[in-house]
Amino acid sequence: MQIRTLIPILIAFIACGAEPQFPDTPAARQFAAWLKAFNDSDPTVFQQFSGKNFPKRQGDSDQDREFRKKTGGFEFIKAEQSTELRFTGLVKERSSSQFARFVIEVEAMEPHLISNLGLRAIDNPNEPPAARMGESELLTALRAKLEQEVAADKFSGAVMVAKNGKPIYSAAFGLADREKKIPNKLDTKFRIGSMNKMFTATAILQLVQAGKLQLTDPLGKYLTDYPNKNVASKVTIHHLLTHTGGTGDFFGPQFDAHRQELRALKDYVTLYGKRDLAFEPGSRWEYSNYGFLLLGLIVEKVSGQDYYDYVRDHVFKPAGMSSTGSLPEDQNVPDRSIGYTKDGGVTLHPNTDTLPPRATSAGGGYSTVEDLLRFANALNGHQLLNEHYTDLLTTGKVEAGNGGKYAYGFGDNMQDGVRWFGHGGGAPGMNGDLKIFPQSGYVIAVLANMDPPSAGRISDFIAARLPVK
After folding, report:
1. Which of 133, 158, 359, 371 could pair with 138 as two cysteines, CB 3.0-4.6 Å apart?
2. Residues near 391 by beta carbon (within 8 Å), at least 6 away in sequence
């Protein structure tokens, strides 16, 4: 999922037939109340609801209003899984044909406050599921899909599909700079959002493999001056790698207010380091960009190198990734595309005013589809880690709330009996996805300089149709 989201991961969704009913559980009742508040024409109703029922949520009232305007609100379609404290189902955007799957979790104690809420765009559930295709048939269908998406201005970026390390399809579409009419190319650098987490996790596992740290170590062993001693003593490297540490996020009003001050990894600790745990480490999964920010600082402490230098020397160079990096925004990066977003408006505009001065170990760097394939090949060929630690890196550890599992900086998913691992990334004006299929040897890399789910939609289209072998 992405790195920056509007309402934690909110995307889009309506109903047909008889009015669906909510189960009589605390989780379902909270979702029904959330939906009613979000759909209210008075935006203060939603703000008041969130403040009372979802206090852990970091949101922005202007973003909420724009998202409400963009979607037209949501309609509940049906329930899927329901327990007392967790409820999943389908919704649909009122202003479009986009469906999404929601997941809500609430606290066990009264008044059952919302602890986690996310929505993920999906294909129309009323349409028959995609059938597996032969390679030639798939590529024909992919070309038609891309032509359709590009014509509707829903995709601008680059796509690569590889088999056993070699590309079988690659193409670029749209403009890297709309004002100067510069086209996207296969070697265009796109901002990749949370995909950086794969590189950070690889760096941490390299240090574990070298015997320089242990996954069970608390973060305070390395960040000895960390301001909150409760966090420092309880949260382990394993917790940070799996988003189970309760370390929270850093996006929200506080980030927006101090965005230009966040020029180094340590600046985030200055801003957020006194904050206490959101929940007991290891008790549940909750996506934490801040947790991966801390992992970057641990890489620095253990290796003695600047984080950016370490991943350049120990991840990018060994993999042959010459077009991947995280140079500051005020430095010229040749062939880096401009991201275009509709966030806060109805027309596409550059995402410049949403970017921090520099990417972090949690995300925000840039890469190309060619370099992402090189990264996948280096992992599969055990050039970055030996076989044991590669498996440890990419094998799911905890349920991630969307039907898949989270490993160490990688998602680990099963679709129709076919396994893939990888990671996506998304924020205003950027979206990317890497899927690696270990059994069949396929790799999908898609990058876009547009809002999510522009790249994810293409990646999912390919993944659902790939040959099994």
Report:
1. 133
2. none
